[in-house]
Amino acid sequence: MASTQGVGAANEDTVHVSPTGVVVLDGLSAPKDLPMGCSHGTPWFVRQLGTHLINLIGDSATPMREALRTAIDQVNGLHRDTCALDQEAVPASTVVMIRERADALDYLVLSDNVLVLDLGDKGIKTVTDKRVEEVAGDEMRAALQGPTGTPEHTARVSKLVSVQRRLRNRPNGYWVAATDPAAADEAITGTVELAQVQQAALLTDGASRLVDSFDALTWAQLLDLLRTEGPAALIARTRKAELADPDGERWPRFKRSDDATAAYVRIGQPVPLSSGAQRLERGKRTGSSWGSGERSDGHTAMMATAPRDVAAALGVAPGDKVIRRTRVYRDRHGIVAHSTSWIPSEFARAVPELLRSERLQGGTSLDLIAQRTGRHAVKRDDKTAARTTTDEDAELLNLEPGAAAAILVLSARFLDSEGRPLEYGVDLGAPGRTRVETSDVAL
């Protein structure tokens, strides 16, 4: 997944991921010269709505529309007493989300986000809601007249938004997630057999424009780009196209560059191994260290004596007491990795949660250490090694006793600004798991 800011003051997109679901939201921009009945603003609204949605669709018995209806009502409750939610000028967002449920994939789309499903022999299915393009036609055509970024163009866009607000969430208008829970009834929903779906992409309109606005790619080519190079590459290619047409003469648009968010999911494919550094970065972006389709269980925590390699990594003497936390990452194919975090014992007092045998809440162990002590991880040492499983490895990975299989071992050591160790993590990848890492290549 990747999300980047456009020309606005803040990124009004957001993406949320759980072991069984993905939610992508695109907040509707509010021109500065127009009133706003909410003091919190659109970025706050989309974050709150996304958080509630990803939690609600985790219950596979909850219909997707019901999840959206409930999430809108719950977010209303967060600022009903402080904001004027009965006005037209309130934060709003488009929605696209999917959920894996038993042998099915549920989806919901509200407004002009795009869901792209690769159904193999049945071809590519796209789902979007273009009703916004069917209203305020005169104002929309005027707002698309360039050059973008000029005062005249900005005024035309403001006029369009003013008209659209009067038509928002009304019969013969268009529908978005705002303050009216009834908008959920207007969402496009559906279910496909999970076995049919090979891959999926969830896109805001800023990330889909290479296909549906610029005609630079087909949907099949977009999926290939996501599969081979990743969501960040799609957005980078979009930005390159926008820079080649800065005034919107070739491709008329409301903004020179819009916030762009893309989430890509390989359905039914084993989750690749993630290093400790990758999980930390993912946690900062999404609030969860899990990869798409991944979950964790078997969390344990205790004080333990430091083995020699751990002692060397943490700068303590062999046999000294250190915090040892373990968990098992899984996907639908089984164990992805057995993960162990070794942490200096001095953090037990500041972060007592580190000694509780449960999943940490409010961030990773490094996040909590930074919050409580002010010591942030600023450097990491990553290592990857391959070996044949030991008897201990086989037990941790639920392999047959005596099994001799090739595995990857990923280790990461995190240091603060003074070079003091904060954590040493070791992940044992299950047999057959691969590690995927994407980076830019200088030409």
Low-confidence stretches: none
Q: Structural class of the secondary structure composition?
A: alpha+beta
Helix content: 25-40%
Instruction: Write down the overall geometry.
Output: globular
Give the radius of gyration.
24 Å
Taking strands numbered 1, 2, ... along the chain, how are they ordered across the largest sheet?
11-12-13-16-15-14
* Main sheet specs: 6 strands, antiparallel
Distance between the termini: 24 Å
Residue-averaged pLDDT: 88
Work out the strand percent: 25-35%
Account of the 3D structure:
By secondary structure, this protein is α+β, with helices and mostly antiparallel strands. Helices cover 28% and strands 27% of the residues. The protein has helices at 42-56, 64-79, 137-143, 151-167, 205-212, 219-229, 231-244, 276-286, 308-314, 347-350, 365-373, 391-396, and strands spanning 2-4, 13-17, 21-27, 93-101, 104-110, 114-118, 124-128, 188-193, 199-203, 260-266, 295-305, 321-331, 334-344, 379-388, 406-415, 421-429. The strands form 3 sheets. A 6-stranded antiparallel β-sheet has the order 11-12-13-16-15-14, covered by helices on one side. A 5-stranded antiparallel β-sheet has the order 1-10-9-6-7. Helix 5 (205-212) packs across helix 7 (231-244). The chain is globular, with a radius of gyration of 24 Å. The mean pLDDT is 88.
